[in-house]
Amino acid sequence: MHTVLDHASVPATVTRKFGLAELNERTAGVADLSVCIDPTKIDDPQPPAPLPKIIVDVKQVLARVGVTTSQAELFQATGHWPITPQFTARERERILRLLERGERMGVLELRRPT
């Protein structure tokens, strides 16, 4: 496949599939996902391609969680809420639950400190 796709390709696909008006210039000017759809597989879904598990160093990930923001503009727009020790602890717990869910799903292998 040599077609450039982006996030606007999803609504572009829906509007074209169902004959709806384009949502905006962005969706009107982007390729839809039809290049990714093999009509012969619609009633014969195939298993996903096997992928290796992602090895995640839990200590390394959690060290970066809740100490800064990667979304400075959003952070500013929402009022510069403080990064407190309580905030950091809560965010680390949330990310740890997310990682553990990935491990239960079989896509991650968590390396924990010994």
Question: Would you mind describing this structure in some detail?
Answer:
With 114 residues, the chain is mostly helical. The protein has two domains: 9-41, no CATH class; 54-111, no CATH class. The protein is 39% helix and 7% strand. It contains five helices and two strands. It has a two-stranded parallel sheet. It is flat and about 50 Å long. It starts with 8 loop residues before the first helix and ends with a strand. The mean pLDDT is 91.
Q: How are the elements arranged and paired?
A:
Elements: H1 9-17, H2 25-28, E1 54-57, H3 58-63, H4 72-77, H5 85-104, E2 108-111
Parallel strand pairs: 1-2
Question: DSSP helix count?
Answer: 5
Q: SSE order, as H and E?
A: HHEHHHE
What is the percentage of strand-forming residues?
Answer: 5-15%
Give Rg in angstroms.
21 Å
Structural class by sheet pairing and helices: mainly alpha
Low-confidence stretches: none
Brief digest:
With 114 residues, the protein is mainly α. Helices cover 39% and strands 7% of the residues.
Name some characteristics of this structure.
114 residues, two-stranded parallel ribbon, 5 helices, 2 strands, 7% strand
